[in-house]
Amino acid sequence: MDAINLAILSQSERSNPVERMPEPNAFCQTLATAALRGSSITREEALRVLTDADLPLLPLLDAAFQVRRHHFGLGVRVHILNNVQNGLCPEDCSYCAQSTSSAGEVPVYRLKSDETILDDARKAHDSGAFRYCLVLSGRGPGEERIDHLASLVTRLKSAFPMEVCLSAGLIDATQAARLKQAGLDRYNHNLNTSESRYGTICHTHSYADRLATLEAARSVGLEVCSGLIIGMGEGPDEVVEVALTLNRLNARSIPVNFYVHAPGAQLGEQNRLTPEGCLRALCLFRFLNPSAEIRAAGGREANLRAMEALALYPANSLFAEGYLNTGGHSADKTMRLIADAGFTVERVDEHD
Ligand code: SF4
C-alpha cells in the first residue's frame, strides 16, 4: 500500500474486502471484545481502523477506551524526559537533529553531572512524574559508562519514589543485566518504523541491532519500552506491522510519536498528519497491545492540536516538559489537560 500518512481513504479508494466488513458500531465492539479477552484482531481489521472513512472516530475511541479503562482505569502516567547527553552522535538517523547527517544546531553537552540529574529528578517528582526517563545521545554505552549509569540509577531509585527508564542506545545482555541489578525498571529503544523502511531512515545501524537490544533488555527482566514515529512516509500497513512486532516483543510501554521536523534534520518536512489519523493510530496500538502503557508521545501538541484531550481515551500516558530537541506542554499545562478531560494523574506511590 502506498504511503498515505494516515489520511483516511475515501469511499472510492476503499477496497472491496473492507466494504464487506461489519457495520461500524458492531465492528468497533468486536475490536473491544477481542482486546478485552486478550485475543488478537486480524491484519485486515487493524488496517480498517486506520483507513476506513466510513468508520466514525467516536465509536472507535469508545471501544479503545473500554480496553484502556479495564487495564488502567482513568489514570494517566506522566513521564518527564531528561536529555542528559545531547549532540555529537555518530549515528545518522535522518529524523534526528542530533544526527551526524543533520545540519541543525542543537545544544551539545556530554553527560550531565550526577548532582544535576538528581536535582532534575527532584523537580520531575515534585511536578507529578510517574516515571523519570534518562536519554543519552550516541550509538551505545561502553563498560565504564554502564557502571556509571548503574550507580546513578541506584541513587535515583533510593532518593525518589519514581520509576526510572533509561534510553542509552544499543546494549547487550551483560550490560542490561548490570542495569537491572542496579534497580533500573525499564529500557527504552524505539523501533521507529517498520523493518522494510528502516534502511531508508538510518544507515549506521540496522533494525536487527535494534531488535537485539530489546531482546537483551527483555532477557534479563527489564521492561521493554519501544515505540515509533508516525508520519515519516510510511503506509498504514507498516504502522500495523510495528504494532504487531511490539506485541510479539511484549513491549510494556509504547511511545507513539507523531513526526515533527526538527530544524536541520535530513528527513525534512513531511506530509502533515491529521488529528483524526493520529487518534486512529493510538486506538490501533491499544487494540493490538491491550495491556501496554500506550503513550501519546512526541509531537502530540503539534499534530493532535484541538483534539489533544481525546488521546487519553486510547492512551494512558503522556510526556510533559517537552522532548529531546522539540518543545512541548509544561507539566502544569499537561496536568490541567488531564484534569479537564476527567482523568487523574497516577503516581508511583498509589500504584500497586
Ligand atoms: S536518534 Fe539517537 S542514535 Fe539516532 S542520531 Fe539521534 S541521538 Fe543518535
Question: Can I get a quick summary?
Answer:
By secondary structure, the protein is of the alpha/beta class. It has 13 helices and ten strands.
Write the layout of secondary structure elements.
Blueprint: H1 16-19, H2 24-37, H3 43-51, H4 57-72, E1 75-85, H5 114-126, E2 131-136, H6 143-159, E3 163-167, H7 173-181, E4 186-188, H8 195-201, H9 207-219, E5 223-225, E6 228-230, H10 236-248, E7 253-258, H11 275-288, E8 293-296, H12 300-304, E9 317-320, H13 331-340, E10 344-345
Parallel strand pairs: 1-2, 1-9, 1-10, 2-3, 3-4, 4-5, 6-7, 7-8, 8-9
Account of the 3D structure:
Strands 1, 2, 3, 4, 5, 6, 7, 8, 9 and 10 form a ten-stranded parallel beta sheet that branches. The chain is built from 13 helices and ten strands. It folds into two domains: 11-68, no CATH class; 74-350, Aldolase class I (TIM Barrel, Alpha-Beta Barrel), CATH 3.20.20.70. The longest helix has 17 residues, at 143-159. 47% of the residues are buried. The chain has helices at residues 16-19, 24-37, 43-51, 57-72, 114-126, 143-159, 173-181, 195-201, 207-219, 236-248, 275-288, 300-304, 331-340; strands at residues 75-85, 131-136, 163-167, 186-188, 223-225, 228-230, 253-258, 293-296, 317-320, 344-345. Strand 1, helix 5 (114-126) and strand 2 (131-136) form a beta-alpha-beta unit. It is of the alpha/beta class and 352 residues long. It is 41% helix and 13% strand. Mean pLDDT is 91; it is low at 1-18. The structure holds iron/sulfur cluster (SF4).
